[in-house]
């Protein structure tokens, strides 16, 4: 039995086939130059993968994304525990996290450039800026909404703080935290790509902007498909883990 909320492989395959069919029909309607068909896009992806320059850009993006994801998840988890466990700290600083979520991050582009300059640090910062706030907010809410019976049980059993954390707190908030990590996974990727578009001279985002500038539709679509496949597969994997923990 599959975890609740996940489609079966047959359902997923049908959706993919329908999507490819629609893509092919639209390509035939508007022309292959405007929208390359699926097979041509797959061939172009293989051609790009054989180019050393593209692999360097891919490696640069992957490195920045891994750093942004690690900082966003770890930092968000630590801040979330602080904000959720200590009311005064949460009331003082958590509104800034909500403000960051509501603010279009592109408007902070000049500030990021001023602080980190033009380069890899700026795109990592963009990734953290996108991925960290949701983890903080969701983790803090999960801790604040913890059933009071857990605290009473810990006092009754005379658990030490470390025992309480490992035996009660962590298992109770893990599903919510995994959901926060899933959001961070997607948002950090978006942030890194935005950072590469505006504050970097390398990476997939920079190459995408360069392709847009010269109207290179095959490369634009190939990059979009690659990003979509990576984000989709990662999101599905995290969703499966989250659903398994909740079931």
Structure description:
With 247 residues, the protein is mostly helical. It has a single domain (40-246), classed as Orthogonal Bundle (MetI-like fold). It is 83% helix and 0% strand. The chain starts with 8 loop residues before the first helix and ends with a helix. The model has no long low-confidence stretch (mean pLDDT 85).
Could you list some keywords that capture this structure?
83% helix; 247 residues; globular; MetI-like fold; mainly alpha
The CA-CA distance between the termini, in Å, is 11 Å
| Unreliable parts | none
The top level CATH class name:
Mainly Alpha
- Put simply, the count of helices is 10
- Counting structural domains, the number is 1
Following the backbone from N to C, one meets helices and strands in this order, namely HHHHHHHHHH
Question: If you compute it from the alpha carbons, what radius of gyration comes out, rounded to the nearest whole angstrom?
Answer: 22 Å
Q: What order do the helices and strands come in, and which of them pair?
A:
Elements (H helix, E strand, L loop, with lengths): L8 H22 L7 H12 L2 H34 L1 H16 L6 H8 L3 H25 L3 H10 L3 H39 L4 H10 L3 H30 L1
Question: What is shown here, in short?
Answer:
The chain is mainly α. The chain is built from 10 helices and no strands.
């Amino acid at each position: 039995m599959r975890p609740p909320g996940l489609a079966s492989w047959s359902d997923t395959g049908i959706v993919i086939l329908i999507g490819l069919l629609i893509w092919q029909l639209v390509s035939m309607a508007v022309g292959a130059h405007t929208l390359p068909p699926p097979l041509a896009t797959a061939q172009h992806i293989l051609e790009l993968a054989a180019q050393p320059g593209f692999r360097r850009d891919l490696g640069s993006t992957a490195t920045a994304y891994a750093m942004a994801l690690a900082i966003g998840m770890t930092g968000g988890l630590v801040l979330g525990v602080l904000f959720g466990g200590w009311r005064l700290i949460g009331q003082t600083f958590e509104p800034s996290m909500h403000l960051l979520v509501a603010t279009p991050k592109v408007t902070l582009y000049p500030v990021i450039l001023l602080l980190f300059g033009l380069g890899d640090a700026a795109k990592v910062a963009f990734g953290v800026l996108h991925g960290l706030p949701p983890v903080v907010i969701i983790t803090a809410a999960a801790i604040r909404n913890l059933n009071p019976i857990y605290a009473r049980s810990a006092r009754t059993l005379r658990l030490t703080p470390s025992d309480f954390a490992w035996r009660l707190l962590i298992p109770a908030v893990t599903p919510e935290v995994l959901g926060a990590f899933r959001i961070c996974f997607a948002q950090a990727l978006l942030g890194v790509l935005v950072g590469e578009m505006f504050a970097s001279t390398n990476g997939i985002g920079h190459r995408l902007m360069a392709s847009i500038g010269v109207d290179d539709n095959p490369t634009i679509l190939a990059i979009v498909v690659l990003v979509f496949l990576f984000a989709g597969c990662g999101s599905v994997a995290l969703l499966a883990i989250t659903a398994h923990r909740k079931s």
